[in-house]
């Protein structure tokens, strides 16, 4: 009888130990058992920000070796070299090409024929501008001689002419030109002959001016 009682106590004690251990396991949270793994963020950042070295040559302002941020394209390298020159041929450059360390970005130059074709419109425009500036030809004349000329290849419009254009007319100086402008502002010119209403312009002077006047 005593042996049976002892076995019962041992069994009860074992059951109590098992129950306590199970409760301890159930009470613990995943956060208590999770392992913390450190991440080397500094190393990743260093790799991402590393630049690439490229050599830029050809028709650029400052050819040479440049360090460009990783992931950049050819256009960034050309910009770092001061951009393309006037003789560059941009059609021969792939500006979207992704840069790699140690590569060369070359900007080809235009051929001699292409350069002539490119500068021809510029030269033509400059010549036209110069011709326009020389359209009005003024000739200094003495009042008593009555000689003079208006603008070459054209006439002076009385209702729109400037003082400089008016002084190009035969026998018209600064004072007479100012009087013409004042009369025009007050009355306007309905006909070429109306210019004789301006003080200082008679029939003799008008006859010299008439071939160069228009409305």
Automatic annotation (TrEMBL):
Gene3D superfamilies linked: Outer membrane lipoprotein wza domain like (3.10.560.10), Photosystem II 12 kDa extrinsic protein (1.10.150.320)
A Pfam family assignment: SLBB
One GO BP: protein secretion by the type II secretion system
GO cellular component: type II protein secretion system complex
Entry-linked InterPro entries: Endo/Exo/Phosphatase_dom_1 (IPR051675), Hlx-hairpin-Hlx_DNA-bd_motif (IPR003583), RuvA_2-like (IPR010994), Soluble_ligand-bd (IPR019554)
Keyword Magnesium: no
Transmembrane segments: none
Superkingdom per UniProt: Bacteria
GO terms of molecular function: DNA binding
Secretion signal span: 1-34
Alphabetical keyword list: Signal
Domain Helix-hairpin-helix DNA-binding motif class, chain residue ranges per copy: 164-183, 193-212
Annotated protein name in UniProt: Competence protein ComEA
Lineage: Bacteria, Bacillati, Bacillota, Negativicutes, Acidaminococcales
